[in-house]
């Protein structure tokens, strides 16, 4: 469930484009107007506005926004205005620009695992159009060791989408996962093969079987809330500070419970001393048209405070207004 | 350069479809008519004929062909009638059905390396539509060791297509390749990363640099015809019977000189005791609309006999007629 709210009647793209142009002119920029328009248009509508703006003013709307806005407000408006594939391409490129460090690994994994295979493919096309390289070569070049062995196939595979489940296979592969995890062979080729090539439906069946078959022995004596934890329990508790194991656990979480994964990213971003605006902006802009309502529900359940209130207490100014508008809070 | 010859004036898809229907009826099948029509239509035209046939007779043309034809002639007509993506999906699926053995590894590599990235992507879509699984999971499941480490990323990566070359990178990566080959580390992660993720243009620049920088020392005392061999020399001569090294050499060949790769497949298929019809049919049907003329030129240069003559001497009947028609030999 998306949080994006689009009015039943909206102006034409040309009218929206002209209103935005007005917001850029005169004494100072009218940030309120920018929020009012852009935060209530879906990606197809924003694309039409960009086209209308470019044809009327000979300049990309993003270029104008870049000139007029600054800091966190600029970033959220820019990221939001981009279409999903272009935005993901930009986020992935930022993540691969330097030697990949922890948060960047998570961003790459997040893009690879929470988007549909076709969305990921469109991101690859947008990445190539913009950066004249493939996402695969950049990820492979900037990673090494277990991180590379996991991340490169995650971004490369075009997974099957469908409800078909092979039960025999699910049992066999649950057994393989169990053996590898028992041996603490977290970077093992077979474990990575299963996680990086199987369809999400098949993976879900495999992890369900894992839980049924091996759940008890693993959870014995340990508090356990969800069956997800049954699988990832030994993976994570083995060494809570190991970055690769954190990434592996998050990968599984992204496949099975993406809303729990995103809830945690938001929780850490908001609870942090000084708020992690980049993480907050990333999750809100990439999920507002997809499943931000479900993430917000999960947030409230886990933190006993509504997400919009938490965001509102932690941010300010135009940036806060844009966040709340994308979160669907009525003005 | 394709060898396929399409007449300037062709009948409508409906007329072609009716002629084919007639060929299936009455006393025996009129194989000559099937060859006459199908071997002179391009893939878009064949698709229209299939659609017209299905709508007129409520049966897929391929099903009718399957009923009417047999053995090598059936296979060549069926493979040819399929569009490129469906055909490659079928060939790849055959290659992954059992534990992958030598020729199957080569077929998978050939599809991954000699098609354009977008063609490979369309094959992945066709594969999923037909088999309800991804090509990536099937290849990963049916391979192991160095073969898996090379083949899975080869079929997975969506490579960049473009003329952009990073010269500094070409030098760095030529050095890496040289070090790995000097160490006989043919399954090394870095060597595989370079071959499986870089664009073909970038790889070509890297191999050119390899030749310029390391060519002399490697070729010293060895007969050397092409710069391709400069690179692959140590890879191959190290152990000529090692299947993985053969695959690695062929991979490089497919990137740089696909016509040389295909010429050799044809040469071995024709020279074999009893002809390898499956290889012959595969190369002719997959390349007739692409570069079979260039492959035929290479064949003549290497064997001092025109390809159509060699094929003609080695095959017979309707199968031979279809091969020669696809080779562009005028009746």
From TrEMBL, chains A, B:
<dbReference type="InterPro" id="IPR018252">
    <property type="entry name" value="Annexin_repeat_CS"/>
</dbReference>
<feature type="binding site">
    <location>
        <position position="68"/>
    </location>
    <ligand>
        <name>Ca(2+)</name>
    </ligand>
</feature>
<protein>
    <recommendedName>
        <fullName>Annexin</fullName>
    </recommendedName>
</protein>
<dbReference type="GO" id="GO:0005886">
    <property type="term" value="C:plasma membrane"/>
</dbReference>
<feature type="binding site">
    <location>
        <position position="272"/>
    </location>
    <ligand>
        <name>Ca(2+)</name>
    </ligand>
</feature>
<comment type="similarity">
    <text>Belongs to the annexin family.</text>
</comment>
<dbReference type="InterPro" id="IPR009118">
    <property type="entry name" value="AnnexinD_plant"/>
</dbReference>
<feature type="binding site">
    <location>
        <position position="26"/>
    </location>
    <ligand>
        <name>Ca(2+)</name>
    </ligand>
</feature>
<dbReference type="InterPro" id="IPR001464">
    <property type="entry name" value="Annexin"/>
</dbReference>
<feature type="binding site">
    <location>
        <position position="274"/>
    </location>
    <ligand>
        <name>Ca(2+)</name>
    </ligand>
</feature>
<feature type="binding site">
    <location>
        <position position="314"/>
    </location>
    <ligand>
        <name>Ca(2+)</name>
    </ligand>
</feature>
<dbReference type="GO" id="GO:0001786">
    <property type="term" value="F:phosphatidylserine binding"/>
</dbReference>
<dbReference type="GO" id="GO:0005737">
    <property type="term" value="C:cytoplasm"/>
</dbReference>
<dbReference type="Pfam" id="PF00191">
    <property type="entry name" value="Annexin"/>
</dbReference>
<feature type="binding site">
    <location>
        <position position="28"/>
    </location>
    <ligand>
        <name>Ca(2+)</name>
    </ligand>
</feature>
<feature type="binding site">
    <location>
        <position position="315"/>
    </location>
    <ligand>
        <name>Ca(2+)</name>
    </ligand>
</feature>
<dbReference type="GO" id="GO:0005509">
    <property type="term" value="F:calcium ion binding"/>
</dbReference>
<dbReference type="InterPro" id="IPR018502">
    <property type="entry name" value="Annexin_repeat"/>
</dbReference>
<keyword id="KW-0041">Annexin</keyword>
<keyword id="KW-0111">Calcium/phospholipid-binding</keyword>
<keyword id="KW-0479">Metal-binding</keyword>
<keyword id="KW-0106">Calcium</keyword>
<dbReference type="GO" id="GO:0009409">
    <property type="term" value="P:response to cold"/>
</dbReference>
<dbReference type="GO" id="GO:0005544">
    <property type="term" value="F:calcium-dependent phospholipid binding"/>
</dbReference>
<dbReference type="GO" id="GO:0009408">
    <property type="term" value="P:response to heat"/>
</dbReference>
<keyword id="KW-0677">Repeat</keyword>
<feature type="binding site">
    <location>
        <position position="270"/>
    </location>
    <ligand>
        <name>Ca(2+)</name>
    </ligand>
</feature>
<feature type="binding site">
    <location>
        <position position="24"/>
    </location>
    <ligand>
        <name>Ca(2+)</name>
    </ligand>
</feature>
<dbReference type="GO" id="GO:0009651">
    <property type="term" value="P:response to salt stress"/>
</dbReference>
<dbReference type="GO" id="GO:0009414">
    <property type="term" value="P:response to water deprivation"/>
</dbReference>
<dbReference type="InterPro" id="IPR037104">
    <property type="entry name" value="Annexin_sf"/>
</dbReference>
């Amino acid at each position: 469930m998306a949080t994006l709210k689009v009015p039943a009647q909206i102006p034409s793209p040309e009218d929206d484009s002209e209103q935005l142009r007005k917001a850029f002119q005169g004494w100072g920029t009218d940030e309120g107007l920018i929020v009012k328009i852009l935060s209530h248009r879906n990606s197809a509508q924003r694309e039409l506005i960009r086209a209308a703006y470019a044809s009327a003013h000979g300049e990309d709307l993003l270029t104008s926004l870049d000139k007029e806005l600054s800091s966190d407000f600029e970033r959220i408006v820019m990221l939001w205005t981009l279409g999903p594939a272009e935005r993901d391409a930009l986020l992935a490129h930022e993540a691969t620009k330097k030697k990949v460090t922890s948060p960047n690994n998570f961003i790459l994994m997040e893009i690879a695992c929470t988007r549909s295979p076709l969305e990921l493919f469109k991101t690859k096309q947008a990445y190539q159009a913009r950066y004249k390289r493939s996402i695969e070569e950049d990820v492979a070049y900037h990673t090494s060791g277990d991180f590379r062995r996991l991340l490169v196939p995650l971004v490369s595979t075009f997974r099957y989408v469908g409800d078909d489940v092979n039960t025999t296979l699910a049992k066999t592969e649950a057994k393989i996962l169990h053996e590898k995890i028992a041996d603490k062979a977290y970077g093992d080729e077979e474990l990575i093969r299963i996680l990086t090539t199987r369809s999400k439906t098949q993976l879900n069946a495999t992890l369900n079987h894992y839980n049924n078959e091996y759940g008890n022995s693993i959870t014995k004596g340990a508090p356990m809330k969800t069956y997800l934890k049954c699988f990832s329990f030994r993976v994570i508790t083995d060494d809570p500070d190991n970055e690769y194991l954190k990434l592996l656990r998050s990968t599984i979480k992204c496949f099975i419970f993406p809303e729990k994964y995103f809830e945690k990213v938001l929780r850490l971003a908001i609870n942090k001393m000084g708020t992690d605006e980049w993480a907050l902006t990333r999750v809100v802009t990439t999920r507002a048209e997809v499943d931000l309502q479900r993430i917000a529900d999960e947030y409230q359940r886990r933190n006993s405070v509504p997400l919009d209130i938490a965001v509102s207490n932690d941010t300010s100014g135009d940036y806060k207004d844009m966040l709340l508008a994308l979160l669907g809070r009525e003005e």
